[in-house]
């Protein structure tokens, strides 16, 4: 039967949109797939609850064959992204599909047509909905389970997108595996630079004060928007959005894994880091992402039983990246690993073009665990690809400058 593409228009359609991924993955055949919480998915797609919709427009699309849903996708425009980056990008995300090239092509074509109608010169993705959310398509590292807020995808998804016509790699991002209790794997330069941060620059570091979470969130936002602004695909978070994220993450936030660097004389926050205990280790115990009838008991019982973290964000304001604050924040992670159940984990996303951070990961003794890819299809003949000319990371580095920089995870 011919594939039909139609928009999500009511609660029944939305339920079909959400349910599809739970049907497409067989936990026995794909044991590394972790079912996300349905409640969190609904909240993210809720136009009334997700503040992202205050500056964005989205269309959720279903692919049907003979009345049966076989695929889904979102097409969206983020006006804040376009204004900040000075581009006319349209985006796609939430892509899930049976191994059906006709359906996948129809979905991607529909997303592109929707973006073109809104003046976009290209469509980029997958982003669900931004690079601040779960994003990118897994293209390497299928043999290991995904860490919190990252995805595991069918290997055939890559072929579905690349065979749809017109799509090329726009950017890859890396997840690095780190064993934080193994200090011997770390280049000694890390510790030398970290030792000088306070004595030479007057900068002190500390952990988040969870009882003062609102103020800490504000400090983190200040660093986040300054340190990340030059990243490919980055869009700043406004205060409403960051507090929305903070509310969602508060149940798993561990102040031992949240850090701030500041100048006590001026009161300026110069750097911050946020690592999250791997909630996926708990979600993997739930059936199909449901909290009812007994899933919430499993979540409560095991939410502190994780042995790894994800370094979700580690950044230093550009004007302070020469001070070695990044190295000091790395050192604090190793100190926390000695006191907490989590002895390591993964660090990322890190853009493959982010030379400083990839150098730092090498010096920390890290290895690339997984690779995610963003694709791009140009919608206008005169549009220029966004892919950097030299964006691939290769080799090892041992230089002081990259360790001091800290940069952005």
What is the highest CATH level, the class of the largest domain? Alpha Beta
Q: How many discrete domains?
A: 2
Alpha carbon gyration radius: 21 Å
Anisotropy-based shape? globular
Number of β-strand runs: 13
How much helical structure, as a percent, in the residues? 25-40%
- Identify the CATH homologous superfamily of the largest domain: Gcn5-related N-acetyltransferase (GNAT)
- The stretches of 5 or more residues where confidence is low (pLDDT under 50) are 389-409
Which second-level CATH architecture of the largest domain applies? Answer: 3-Layer(aba) Sandwich
SSE order: EHHEEHEHEEHEHEHHEEHHEHEHEH
Strand content: 15-25%
Main sheet specs? 13 strands, mixed
Continuous helix count: 13
């Amino acid at each position: 039967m011919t594939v039909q593409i139609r928009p999500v228009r009511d609660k029944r359609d939305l339920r079909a949109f959400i349910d599809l991924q739970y049907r497409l993955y067989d936990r026995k055949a794909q044991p590394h797939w972790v079912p996300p919480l349905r409640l969190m998915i609904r909240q993210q797609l809720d136009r009334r609850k997700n503040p992202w919709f205050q500056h964005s427009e989205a269309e959720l699309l279903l692919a049907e064959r003979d009345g049966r849903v076989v695929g889904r996708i979102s097409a969206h425009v983020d006006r804040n992204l376009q204004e900040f980056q000075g581009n006319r990008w349209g985006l796609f995300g939430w892509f899930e599909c049976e191994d059906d090239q006709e359906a996948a092509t129809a979905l991607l074509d529909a997303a592109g047509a929707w973006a073109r109608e809104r003046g976009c010169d290209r469509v980029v993705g997958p982003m669900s909905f931004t690079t601040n959310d779960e994003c990118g398509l897994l293209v390497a590292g299928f043999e290991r389970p995904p860490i919190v807020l990252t995805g595991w995808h069918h290997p055939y998804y890559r072929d579905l997108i690349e065979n749809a016509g017109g799509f090329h790699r726009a950017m890859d991002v890396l997840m690095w595996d780190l064993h934080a209790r193994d200090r011997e794997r770390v280049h000694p330069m890390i510790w030398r630079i970290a030792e000088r941060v306070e004595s030479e620059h007057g900068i002190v570091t500390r952990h988040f004060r969870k009882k003062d979470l609102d103020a800490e969130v504000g400090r983190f936002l200040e660093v986040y928007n300054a340190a990340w602004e030059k990243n490919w695909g980055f869009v700043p978070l406004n205060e409403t959005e960051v507090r929305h994220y903070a509310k969602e993450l508060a149940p798993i936030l561990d102040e031992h894994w949240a850090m701030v660097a500041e100048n006590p004389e001026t009161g300026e926050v110069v750097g911050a880091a946020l690592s999250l205990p791997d909630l996926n280790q708990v979600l993997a115990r739930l059936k199909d992402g449901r909290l009812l009838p007994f899933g919430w008991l499993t979540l409560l019982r095991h939410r502190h039983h994780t042995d790894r973290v994800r370094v979700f964000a580690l950044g230093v304001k550009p004007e302070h990246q020469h001070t070695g604050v990044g190295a000091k924040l790395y050192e604090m992670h190793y100190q926390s690993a000695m006191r907490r159940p989590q002895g390591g984990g993964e660090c990322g996303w890190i853009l493959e073009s982010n030379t400083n951070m990839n150098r730092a990961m090498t010096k920390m003794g890290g290895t690339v665990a997984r690779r995610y890819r963003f694709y791009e299809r140009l919608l206008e003949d005169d549009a220029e690809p966004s892919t950097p000319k030299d964006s691939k990371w290769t080799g090892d580095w041992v230089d002081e400058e990259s360790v001091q920089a800290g940069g952005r995870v």
